[in-house]
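In this supplementary section we document a worked example of the pipeline. Step one takes a protein sequence of length 130 as its only input; no multiple sequence alignment statistics are reported here. Step two produces a three-dimensional model, which step three serialises into structure tokens for compact storage. The input and output of this example are shown verbatim.
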Amino acid sequence: MRTRRSLLTGPLAVGGAVMLAATLTACGPETPEIEVPGGDPEQGRTLVVQYGCTSCHSIPNVPSVDDESVAPALDDLADRDFLAGQIPNRTEELIAWLQNPQLVDPGTLMPDMGVTRGDAEDIAAFLYGQ
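The serialised model returned by step three reads:
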């Protein structure tokens, strides 16, 4: 006696399930890496220490404060929708913020540290990679 294979259990079903799983994985919730043209993440890591960012912010992979009462932690920055609670999280906005936070958001507690454009690009590249 011959039995019929169900489409739900045969080789086509297994192949289809594998393709579906691969498609869902490729389209998952992962945030694409944010590119910072001209930015050097390794130099940015050095600069966050030199500019004193770590005295107020907790930054992954950098010795820094552990107290978020001073300033927000800067981990997973690439996954956030906004910078400083209201600025769209885009490369140019982050670079402008790093260069002159008072100009971007008058009254912010973040001080102007005199960050140059090149240094801001490097810092942004580093922060987006955390």
